[in-house]
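Researcher: Dear colleague, please comment on this protein.
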Amino acid sequence: MAYPAPTIDADLEAVTAALAGVQPRPGRGDSDVDLLVEFGPIDISKKFHTYLEARAAFSKILQSEVDLVMSGAVKNKVIASEIDRTKKLIYGT
């Protein structure tokens, strides 16, 4: 069953594994796009579906694999600090 594309209330920031000091996963190279997203208010029961739909939509638009990271999900303080330092807002406020 196909679901309609979600309307996403979110801030979107670009980060790269290289900027964040993270080694690419084996077999992935460095060809993917890393996006940090902070969703606006969303029903918890729809959050996972919205995440998957957003990732698929960005992959289609960018014609590249997309790693979509939810803001606050990175628990490693060194990596989180580097992401915070290097992120670039591309949509939102």
